[in-house]
Amino acid sequence: MKSMTGFGRGAVSEENFAVSVEIKTVNNRFLDLNLRIANELQSVEANLKRLIQSRLSRGRIDVFINYERTGDVVYELNRPLISGYLSALKEMQNEFSLSGEPDLNLIARLPNSLLTKADDASENFTEGIETAVKLALDELEKMREIEGESLKNELQSRLAEIEKQLPAIETQMETVADEYRQRLNKRIGILLEKSDAQIEIDQARLAQEVAYLADKQDISEEIIRLKSHIEQFRGILNEEKEVGKRLDFLTQEFNREANTIASKTNNLIVKEAALNIKSAIEKMREQVQNVE
Fold first, then answer.
1. Are residues 166 and 276 in the same domain?
2. Tens digits of residue pLDDT in 105-157
3. Does 130 lie in the same domain as 100?
């Protein structure tokens, strides 16, 4: 299991160039890849994206590529700019009857009159960039694995908290029928004391009412599903592939069962246990959002 949060850096230095790559990732429901790359490297962008997507499946990914060419710099003329400048000077000379010739030094100092020649990325340079990206991914994934192990331990502790609440709920629910019977007998007794009529309690009918109320507020199915979700969650935590979406789904199922338990009974001990379960689930949900 891996976290979606991490950072990795890779660098490659050769005789004619030096490349450094930084990759930062944070949580996201889907894969959101943002590649910050210079225009002259557009030809390698598709390959770099495929490389990154083969290693990462979820998260917002920001990739920063910086490089420096250490070989000789070749300049080329910005012909449209220079031509336009000379035409304007010629027009000025004719219109105002001026003499003289254009100054070469002045033309050379014009902004953008000389441009660095944009050479296509050489095979060696391209391989250097890809190597730097791989090194950054290696470091990133190592960090994501460490963060993932921390998340795994945290989630396991939350599962233990949920499990700890179940025995108290099960114990209380075993006495539900007896509690209903005692409560009904007490209420009927109070009503009879206020009445002069001599009424004999139908024990069979009383048993039916108790059974109906007990069945209506039975939470045995919710307990069984909670235990099943716990086992599924533990199994998923030990998988190596992408698990974040499945864990997120299970936390929603946990929450649904806890809400049902809390709504079905008036038993204070059960309600308190259900609230403790919901608190643990909420903490789990926050952590699951960072799992790849």
1. yes
2. 888 888 888 776 655 556 788 899 999 999 999 999 999 999 999 999 999 99
3. no
